[in-house]
Amino acid sequence: MKKSKVDIKEYSDVWVIGELIDGNISPVTLQLINVGKKLANKLNKNTIVVIVGYGEKDRVTKLLNYGVDKVLYIEHKILRNFNVMGYTEAIYKLIEERKPEIVLFGATSMARDIAPRLAAKLDTGLTSDCIKLDIDERDGKLLRTKQGLGGNLITTTICPRNRPQMSTLIPNIYRPANYNEKIFGQVEIINPEILCEDYKVKFIKKIPLEDKKVNLADAKIIVSGGRGLGEPSGFKLIRQLADTLGGIVGASRAAVEAGWIDSRHQVGKTGTIVRPDLYIACGISGAFQHQSGIYDSKCIIAINKDPYAPIFKICDFGIVGDLYEVIPALIEEINKKQQRYFDNFP
Ligand SMILES: Cc1cc2nc3c(=O)[nH]c(=O)nc-3n(C[C@H](O)[C@H](O)[C@H](O)COP(=O)(O)OP(=O)(O)OC[C@H]3O[C@@H](n4cnc5c(N)ncnc54)[C@H](O)[C@@H]3O)c2cc1C
């Protein structure tokens, strides 16, 4: 519904929409607090975390250790598990009532579901997948920077007349807020009136993922495979190299979309932004969206049979060749080296 003219002076404070994953505070929540506090300091306003759940008061209270002024904990039995309609309704009502100036989300699946719905209901602007957020020193507006047109363009947008100003931020770009023993904020519990019968979407059951060990964000060594593998079984070779090096398996979006590997392995703009000591890209061309997820790697090695593949422009070491010849040779060499190392032990 189109709103009549908004009085932007009525809006105050920076809100971070936090997330609980299986009862734990998600890493992106702490990263958002870090950036939210920076924005709030520039505006001389409060940083407030809004989090939805049920029976998690103790965990939610821990957010105060990250230097926020307040935690608004929306608690309701129906909201124990994510429900797009329930979460949207509960957060929408709170925004309408309290009028935050800025609302930030992580660019996560949950936010991709609820942030556009909220923006439409609130008749305000949303810039998704931002890589940088700042305040315009001239007029205090939120500057939302994101990449566009396949990375060939960086745009910074503002939301001049409507409120709140809303953005989703790509995870792992900002560091998490620092933990502090001393707390000064407080938790306010909000018990919304929610009629679950009204929701068109209902939670039925949670199916746990079989392999939970994909933690790309913290991995020190990642070996990734792309479309160049040619077939799903190519990932056996990728895993073999990863195991030899004590690393974990990553993938390009093309490999994920081909159904060769689970999406939790996807590295890149819409996958996970990684910062390993060693990143090995095998049969990956190095499209901009993949590159933007690996820039912070300490060392990038690329294996590709096309000497003009873009990945060679950003890698530290490039091997031009067929990955099915190069990887087995690499594994053999590493194993030989390890053997020599152990043979030299007294
Ligand atoms: C909005 C949006 C978001 C996106 N987000 C992501 C993202 O997060 N992550 C991501 O990865 N992509 C993302 N993409 C997709 C991205 O644009 C590319 O399409 C994708 O990264 C290509 O994957 P690839 O390099 O595996 O495949 P290709 O580009 O097809 O490259 C395959 C490479 O393998 C090489 N090759 C082939 N056979 C062999 C062999 N036997 N040995 C050695 N090399 C070989 C080829 O020379 C080629 O360079 C996104 C796209 C969009 C539009």
Describe this structure in words.
Helices cover 28% and strands 23% of the residues. It is of the alpha/beta class and 346 residues long. The protein folds into two domains: 8-198, Rossmann fold (3-Layer(aba) Sandwich); 216-343, 3-Layer(aba) Sandwich (Rossmann fold), CATH 3.40.50. The strands form four sheets. It has a seven-stranded parallel β-sheet, with helices on both faces. Strand 9 and strand 10 (153-157) form a beta hairpin. Helix 3 packs across helix 4 (109-122). The mean pLDDT is 91. The structure holds flavin-adenine dinucleotide (FAD). Flavin-adenine dinucleotide binds next to helix 6, helix 7, strand 16 and helix 9.
Q: How much helical structure, as a percent, in the residues?
A: 25-40%
Number of spatially distinct domains: 2
User: Tell me, what is the CATH class of the largest domain?
Assistant: Alpha Beta
Bound molecules: flavin-adenine dinucleotide
End-to-end Cα distance: 77 Å
Shape: elongated
Low-confidence stretches: none
Q: Architecture of the largest domain in CATH?
A: 3-Layer(aba) Sandwich
CATH superfamily membership of the largest domain: HUPs
